[in-house]
Amino acid sequence: MAKKNKQESKLKELGLKVLKDVEKIRNPNITIPVRALSNVIFNKKSKTLELGNKKSKRFFFNVAHAKKFLQTIEVASVSKNLLNEEKHASLRDVFYMMKRTIPGTSVNIVDEQSESDNVIEDLELLTGDSREQLNINANKNGSIVGKVTIEDAGDTIRWDKLGSGGWSIPSNVEDIKFKSVNAKYILYMEKAAVWERLNEDRFWEKHKCILISSQGQTTRGIRRLLQRLYEEYKLPIYVLTDYDAYGFYIYSVIKYGSINLAHASERLAIPGVKFLGISSNDIEKYDLKKHFIKLKDHDISRLKQLAEYSWFKDNKQWQKEFKTMRQYGSKAEIQALSSRGITFISEKYLPEKIKNKDFID
Amino acid sequence: MAKKNKQESKLKELGLKVLKDVEKIRNPNITIPVRALSNVIFNKKSKTLELGNKKSKRFFFNVAHAKKFLQTIEVASVSKNLLNEEKHASLRDVFYMMKRTIPGTSVNIVDEQSESDNVIEDLELLTGDSREQLNINANKNGSIVGKVTIEDAGDTIRWDKLGSGGWSIPSNVEDIKFKSVNAKYILYMEKAAVWERLNEDRFWEKHKCILISSQGQTTRGIRRLLQRLYEEYKLPIYVLTDYDAYGFYIYSVIKYGSINLAHASERLAIPGVKFLGISSNDIEKYDLKKHFIKLKDHDISRLKQLAEYSWFKDNKQWQKEFKTMRQYGSKAEIQALSSRGITFISEKYLPEKIKNKDFID
């Protein structure tokens, strides 16, 4: 239980602070940084999104604050119990654990999951710990393969001995211990089908790398795992997505962090990540125009939005990407490479791109 | 390559049949069972959905058939190449492999993935093999844990030594070899968060079972894996979902097959599967009414649809379920059990239900 002592003592501190307010007959209150777009800034030095200095106080004796104050204390108590019992709960579990009536009333502590999610994010800020460290898990998703050995939950696991499936990435990777990491870089891809292609071709073995995929959105578990490998083993990370605004945004979130999790950038953003493809150059070079898919209105407005982000605004390479895609009026899928042959991606496209360092930063 | 000889020779046979038509100056044609709701029947004996006897002929020299005829031959050729090269492709890959112009014209063989998907399903019927056996993979999704050892792609993999993540289930499980299976039953759950709960509590070890989860829809890979364990090891399978029409439908698809894959029921349906919960009885017994979520219009129409399915029509237990939910006007989530304590599901709910054989068939 020792490893969780730090988190537990911070939660206890929070409780004692409130208790002290009560004893001193002060209005109990908690100070929390403001989590709103108005307080999200792009730190040009660390190259990540982060929260500014705006703070707000939450008082118990304040009609507008009382319920949120109670929710904050309640979620701290739920987290402390989880840490005590050495159990993890999902966001949805925590919602149900908090969803009960306030004694002596018919009012629920929380009615919607958005309320419990919200105070969980506050608790991250109050303690400086991620919700995973507070034993509250995000979604589970994704597979990984590579010449890596880890220890997790008492088992020694070799990521290079897991056949066609790979290791299923848990929602919470905080307690994983890396025993040996034998890789030159990490390839993260948006699509599980591409991961299966590269795993079947044993790309990770031939090119000494780690292959990670999600299916759709990049979960916090995957982002944190990428970050840990990047920081602890200085492994370059290359991101492989479709040629579309959604793919570009996946890269943006992994690299810079996301607006609604700006407070967690320190634990999630990875400024060194590079975009491998599909890029506009690839479209020309690998003759993919015949597989173009026409942009829809929402694609175009998403591209405009991306171009306006402060972290892309002064980036000439990316501005060129956004502009070229709009000129093409088209997007393309990574699987379009399969029209060149089923192993074209693993035998030609990827080795060539990586050898030539043909990345976008 | 030997194991794939059967599939390859069937594809060759198809090609030779067409060639013979040409040589004999006959109009080349293929006979395919009709895949439409009008030809889907519920076999009361095998208790699965299957195709009826209606067949249609597809001719080369027929303006309405020519393109589809060509697509059918083309997909057979793509599959034969994959089998030759011992490579697997996703549905999307196959689409791009087929998407090229017909020589001497500006017409594409396929323009939309629905066209290639469609002839892939035809090819399943023509050969009697599943698309996985033809080296065309579905989606990858899901995790598994339990006291089982398998061999896959040259690796020996122990499902009980994979920490908090488990084995990531591949899209294609045809070539997995089971070396030892030490389990009394299988618990399949809709939600990965519930899987993580039960894995953390080492439920599979204490109760000698296998835990499988998807995240959302049950992929063909998962259904086929369930079926193989059910048939090869006679393991009972219990399905655990939310208390809602969508959860009931997940159960229905695993047990009886789905309408659009009726031709594949033999390889996918598992008539012996039982529904463990959440059931209407559970709602009463475990005091879950306070966590009710009001039914929406689409929930109600889905319930009506389920009640009309021929495989549910004469089933009194299920008709009672549908009726009770409509009377409640409410659904509930499995995580509502967490309001009774984080390990309530693994320490009380599941052991009690399984001991009392409190299932719906």
Condensed summary:
2 copies of one chain form a homodimer. Chain A is an alpha/beta fold and 361 residues long.
How would you characterize this protein structure?
The structure is a homodimer of 361-residue chains. Chain A is α/β, with parallel strands linked by helices and 361 residues long. Chain A has two domains: 2-27 and 62-137, Arc Repressor Mutant, subunit A; 143-355, Dna Topoisomerase Vi A Subunit, Chain: A, domain 2 (3-Layer(aba) Sandwich), CATH 3.40.1360.10. Chain A has 14 helices and 17 strands. In chain A, strands 10-7-13-12-14-15 form a six-stranded mixed beta sheet, sandwiched between helices. In chain A, strands 9-8-11 form a three-stranded antiparallel beta sheet, with no helix packed on it. A two-stranded antiparallel sheet of chain A has the order 1-4. In chain A, α1 (5-23) runs antiparallel to α2. The first copy, chain A, starts with a helix and ends in a 6-residue tail after the last helix. The interface between A and B is large, with 59 and 60 residues.
What would the principal axes of the Cα set say about the shape of chain A? Answer: globular
Q: Provide the domain count of chain A.
A: 2
Cross-sheet strand order for the largest sheet of chain A: 10-7-13-12-14-15
Number of helices of chain A: 14
Q: What key phrases describe this protein's structure?
A:
Arc Repressor Mutant, subunit A, six-stranded mixed β-sheet, 42% helix, Dna Topoisomerase Vi A Subunit, Chain: A, domain 2, globular, homodimer, alpha/beta
Could you give the topology of this structure?
The structure is a homodimer of 361-residue chains.
Chain A: H1 5-23, E1 29-33, E2 40-43, E3 48-51, E4 55-59, H2 66-85, E5 89-90, H3 91-98, H4 113-127, E6 136-137, E7 143-145, E8 148-152, E9 155-158, E10 167-168, E11 177-181, E12 185-189, H5 192-200, H6 203-206, E13 209-213, H7 220-233, E14 237-240, H8 245-256, H9 265-268, E15 274-277, H10 280-285, E16 293-294, H11 297-308, H12 310-313, H13 316-328, E17 330-331, H14 344-355
Helix pairs in contact in A: 1-2, 2-4, 3-4, 8-11, 11-13
